[in-house]
From TrEMBL:
SUPFAM superfamilies: ATPase domain of HSP90 chaperone/DNA topoisomerase II/histidine kinase, Homodimeric domain of signal transducing histidine kinase. The keyword Membrane applies. Residues 270-502 form the Histidine kinase domain. It catalyses: ATP + protein L-histidine = ADP + protein N-phospho-L-histidine. SMART domains: HATPase_c (SM00387). The lineage of its organism: Bacteria, Pseudomonadati, Pseudomonadota, Betaproteobacteria, Rhodocyclales. Keywords: Membrane, Phosphoprotein, Transmembrane, Transmembrane helix. The chain crosses the membrane at residues 20-40, 216-237. PROSITE patterns: HIS_KIN. InterPro entries: HATPase_C_sf, HATPase_dom, His_kinase_dom, HisK_dim/P_dom, HisK_dim/P_sf, Sig_transdc_His_kin-like_C, Tll0287-like_dom. The keyword Phosphoprotein applies. This is histidine kinase. It holds the Pfam family HATPase_c. Its EC number is 2.7.13.3.
């Protein structure tokens, strides 16, 4: 038969306050992690925006420098704002006309002028610098020195948030300026070669802390709202579920008691049928014995009685007496067994007993239920004993047998076969195998057989509690496990594992 995973309990009470506290703690941790990730994403997004903005400024400056270099420099009127460049060693640096004096603006000079205009119009700071400067004002600060060293080691750019002296933050960016052929006219004497890092352009702007802070506050408030809604909802749901569970538990208790009484009713029905047979035989035997006594009285009234007739009459009287005695003894044993079974069902005391005797009594009292439908084969060592609650085992076997008769075999079937095999695994566990060769179950039905109120015979008055009770008794009351394997047309097999010794009261009971 196909292997099936162990079934989980079909009904669970709502979580306790301790469990709810653990869930809330886990939920708090998840919200905190989510908030931390959200803040990290906000900060990273702000960083990426600032980085891309600085890159665009750098690209624009590099494009302007390339245009200037490709044109051999540009000329502007010499003035206080655009004085001749003392570090530009070119015979054509200055040009004079009748009306204008022009001075050459090379890429480096143009970069400084752009940086000056940017500082006048806003908070953007642009600084062209190098580790080997010609102009003192191009000297790098400490951050620029470190960044230039990183660029010369192969990094393509440096962009990061740094703290100002006044504890404000600013975003600083630097990318390298490489030496090309147009640069050698001014910088060849410094030992540069084409492809070397000549220096870099540093771009600084205030870190948009307020906007980032506002986004973080908004995300924090949103996370707090979600946390409070779910935490409050969980508390309200817990209270509602606890109330509903109490009501459900009360209703289930009544249904379980009703099913227990139904189980007792089935035992009573089987017992009464079994008891009728020996009592009927005993009554017939005693009636025959009474007729023999009447015949014996008639013999005594005769003058002569043959010894053969007297001996025959005495033999009949002895046989009828023995028949009545044996059947009355059988009836007494039935009453004793039924009394023990019914007491076990009503009581839930732990005691030591032999499993074979318990199962034999169940089969004897239920024989009227199954004998026209199926034959039951029991394989259980006579001396196999157990310390547990026998009444619970009575209910388990009763429900399994009734379930097979009701569901596994057709109404006209009379050749069904049920096999019950019980043994110990040698490690303190009792293994109970219960198998019938009935019509089996589909996978969809098999998945739900231990659910309360699930039945395929709703129209015929089925309660759907028989196998649920078996599951509850095995797993919750006796601390064992039960599994089911079945296929359509291949019968059904239950495997039950129970502890052989139960030193304390069953789960959920007080000792």
């Amino acid at each position: 038969m196909p292997q099936h995973p162990a079934y989980s309990a079909p009904l669970h009470p709502p979580a306790s306050l301790r469990q709810l506290s653990v869930l809330l703690a886990v939920w708090t941790l998840l919200v905190a992690v989510s908030l931390a990730l959200s803040i990290s994403r906000i900060q990273q997004h702000a960083h990426d925006l600032m980085l891309e903005g600085a890159r665009n400024v750098f690209r624009t400056i590099v494009a302007a420098r390339a245009w200037n270099a490709s044109s051999g420099g540009v000329y502007v009127p010499a003035s206080e704002q655009n004085p001749p460049n003392p570090f530009l060693f070119s015979p054509s640096r200055d040009l004079h006309t009748d009306k204008l004096s022009l001075t050459q603006i090379n890429p480096a000079y143009m970069t400084r002028q752009i940086a000056h205009q940017a500082s006048l119009q806003g908070t953007l700071k642009i600084h062209m610098t190098s580790l080997r400067v010609l102009r003192p004002e191009n000297s790098p600060d400490s951050w620029e020195k470190q960044s230039l060293a990183r660029l010369e080691q192969g990094e393509l750019e440096v962009g990061e948030v740094v703290e100002r002296a006044n504890e404000e933050k600013e975003f600083r960016f630097m990318a390298p300026l490489f030496v090309d052929k147009t640069c050698l006219g001014c910088h060849a004497h410094q030992g540069y070669a084409i492809g070397d890092v000549r220096g870099g352009i540093s771009i600084s702007q205030p870190w948009q802390d307020s906007a980032t802070r506002n986004q973080i506050i908004h995300s924090s408030l949103l996370h707090a709202l979600v946390f409070l809604l779910l935490a409050g909802g969980s508390l309200l749901a817990h209270r509602s579920l606890a109330k509903r569970w109490a009501q459900t538990e009360q209703a289930m208790s009544g249904l379980m008691q009703a099913e227990k009484m139904a189980s007792m009713g089935r035992l009573v029905s089987g017992f009464s049928h079994e008891l009728n047979t020996p009592l009927g035989v005993a009554i017939s035997a005693l009636s025959h014995h009474e007729h023999c006594l009447d015949d014996f009285g008639h013999l005594l009234q005769r003058e002569e009685v043959p010894e053969q007739e007297i001996r025959a009459l005495l033999t009949d009287m002895r046989e009828s007496g023995q028949l009545a005695q044996s059947n009355l003894r059988r009836a007494a044993n039935l009453v004793s067994g039924f009394k023990r079974s019914s007491t076990d069902i009503e009581r839930e005391d732990i005691r030591h007993f032999k499993l074979r005797e318990i199962v034999d009594e169940v089969l004897q009292t239920l024989s009227n239920v199954y004998k026209k439908t199926a034959r039951i084969e029991l394989d259980c060592p006579p001396e196999l004993s157990m310390t547990s609650v026998p009444g619970l085992l009575d209910q388990i076997f009763t429900n399994l047998i009734v379930n097979s008769v009701t569901h596994a075999f057709g109404p006209e079937q009379s050749d069904g076969h049920i096999r019950i095999a019980i043994d110990s695994d040698g490690a303190g566990q009792i293994l109970i195998g219960y198998a019938d060769d009935g019509k089996g179950m589909s996978p969809a039905v098999q998945r739900r057989i231990f659910e309360p109120f699930f039945t395929t015979r709703q129209a015929q008055g089925g309660t759907g509690l028989g196998l649920y009770i078996c599951y509850s008794l095995v797993t919750e009351r006796l601390g064992g496990s039960i599994r089911c394997d079945s296929l359509p047309g291949a019968g059904t097999h239950f495997l039950i594992r129970l502890p052989q010794h139960t030193p304390t009261a069953p789960s959920g009971e007080t000792p």
